[in-house]
Input
Amino acid sequence: MQTSFYTTPGRYPGIVGWLFTTDHKRIGLLYLATALAFFAIGVSLGLTMKLELIRSGMHIISAQTYNAVFTLHGVVMIFLFIIPGIPSSLGNFILPLQLGARDVAFPKINNLSWWLFIAGGALAVASLFTGGGPPDTGWTFYVPYSIRTGTNISLAVFGVFLIGLSSTLTGMNFLTTIHRMRAPGLTWGRLPLFTWAIYATSWVQLLATPVLAITLILVILERSFGVGFFDPAKGGTPSCSSTCSGSTRTPRSTS
Output
């Protein structure tokens, strides 16, 4: 008699068993629940901005706080909801089932990816309340402003780096699963469209996300140690001219 994955006993009982599970279906549900929780946070931040813009002048939050809310809203919605929403949640739950596999190729790395996702999201949200002030550069973290501002950019950037690492590991896991764990007779021409979509997305995660992650680490190194990766005065290459520092933010007029 088969039992549901909801009740299948694991190494740990109860909620701890869910948090440290290697079952792809449970991890898919964990991703879905946390992505929806971050979505609620992002919606709250977006609603705060809209309420501030409902009429001219400053009446709910200050201009600096508005820029910080704008930054974190972008980080949450892009990195914590849109990107992992379908691949990490539905991909984890459905992909092995469509391939006829018992699980993904690396179940423990799959659980580690979720923990990195949670840690990165927690650090990004914590950057609002710690350090020299909440980050105010916009979710793209463009230089030169991101290396000149005195706000808590480094913590937010490191949080996004962990989220990117989680995405890279997930993409690697899915690619290996699709290549090596298909059921006998399930050729490339017989793969479902959803599997093809996850396959294409996984290549993007594996090839593009590390480039973003390395760039974020360079921002942290330049802010912390003054290494001239982006500062032309130190031999670096800026990502844009000095005039674009203002375009990375959405300034809130106080008039």
